[in-house]
Design a protein that fits this description.
The chain is mainly alpha-helical and 353 residues long. Helix content is 42%, strand content 7%. The strands form two sheets. A three-stranded antiparallel sheet has the order 1-3-2. A two-stranded antiparallel ribbon has the order 4-5. The longest helix has 25 residues, at 38-62. Belongs to the bacterial ribosomal protein bL17 family.
Length: 353
């Protein structure tokens, strides 16, 4: 090697012997003119390095091992490190009542089986609505703790009593009349309790179709309820849309008229010809879908007939005490409850607690 070869030339010769040999041979012959062609030398070296790096990349892609990642990649996320803390990944505020998310981590409701997240929310709304209507609900599997927790949220909204809480419950439930029932009954019923308003009891038998554990979810403190005091849930009614049985000690109990009207309005749609047509059509679909032990639609009897309506009405009149003879012309009569006159003190509504 020529003694006039600089350290840069020697390093390049060690790294790229084939590419640099002819360049260095030329510069060693022209060593007397090195001071004059230094800018040209630097530009040629940069061009050489660029071409060599490109050739190395192409060689690795074609002949050698492929690189582990090609193209733009997502940064690795480590535990406790947020890539962009200004953006929240929660679709809504899960700390609000009835807005809890579903999942299998701590702080989330059990993610019970459903066709989609929308269907899961529909199931939750239907369960809570029926829970308020009947004061109990029999559900299976992971739906039971979900219903118990959401039932507590309903009582929290009812005890708050403000307009925003009523609006939030109205957005969640299917029946707007159940919103009025919850806000009328629960503040007085649970005024001495601050949590755990509903309880969940596992039943002995499992569901026969899919062997799922069944749970009986109900509200506590039923004796303080004007709508459900004295109801017996050990045996269900003859039809699901009939009122529950009453214990012998409370046979002549009177229900609030407006809630009795709300229950009768809900039950009336199952006694119509349209529902019977839908019921027969549902049997036909179930048979078409391959569900076993479903009777033929022609063998399906209506759930309610005029004769059963008359017999049930006579039975209700027999169990109910004699109606008071009201003098409609009496101006001193005052009916407490919904739609009554305001308090003579003029102090407005009283909040429970």
């Amino acid at each position: 090697m020529c003694p006039h070869t600089t350290l840069t030339h020697r390093v390049l010769m060690l790294i790229f012997p084939q590419q640099c040999s002819h360049y260095l041979r030329f510069f060693s012959l022209q060593s007397s003119f090195q001071n004059k062609i230094t800018p040209l030398l630097l530009s040629l070296l940069l061009l050489l390095l660029f071409r060599c790096s490109a050739m190395i990349r192409i060689t690795f892609l074609v002949c050698g091992r492929a690189p582990p990642v090609i193209g733009p990649t997502r940064k690795a996320r480590f535990a406790g490190i947020d890539d962009n803390p200004t953006i929240t990944y929660k679709p809504w505020d899960t700390s609000e009542p009835l807005m809890a998310d579903y999942g299998w981590t701590r702080g989330k409701l059990p993610k019970f089986r459903a066709r989609s997240p929308f269907h899961r929310q529909q199931i939750a709304r239907r369960m809570v609505t029926e829970m308020i209507r009947k004061d109990y609900c029999i559900v299976g599997g992971a739906r039971a703790p979900v219903l118990r927790i959401l039932a507590d949220h309903v009582v929290e909204l009812a005890k708050a009593g403000d307009t925003d809480s009523r609006q939030q419950l109205a957005y969640f439930l299917h029946d707007p009349l159940m919103v009025d029932k919850a806000f009328d009954e629960y503040p007085q019923r649970f005024k001495d309790m601050n949590s755990k308003y509903a309880m969940m009891t596992r039943l002995k038998s499992r569901r026969r179709t899919d062997n799922v554990a069944m749970y009986f979810v109900e509200y506590k403190n039923r004796d303080m309820s004007d709508n459900h005091k004295g109801e017996d849930y050990s045996v269900g009614p003859e039809r699901f849309f009939l009122p529950p049985r009453i214990v012998e000690t409370e046979k002549g109990i009177q229900r609030p008229p407006h809630m009795q009207m709300a229950f009768d309005r809900w039950a009336s749609k199952f006694k119509t010809e349209e529902f019977h047509h839908w019921w027969r059509l549902r049997h036909a679909k179930l048979r078409y879908w391959g569900v076993r032990n479903v009777p033929h639609p022609s063998d399906v009897d209506p759930l309610w007939t005029e004769k059963e309506e008359e017999e049930w009405h006579n039975e209700m009149l027999a169990n109910t005490g004699d109606f008071e003879d009201l003098d409609l012309d009496d101006e001193s009569y005052a009916a407490p409850g919904e739609g009554a006159e305001p308090s003579p003190l003029g102090d407005g509504p009283h909040r429970a607690g």
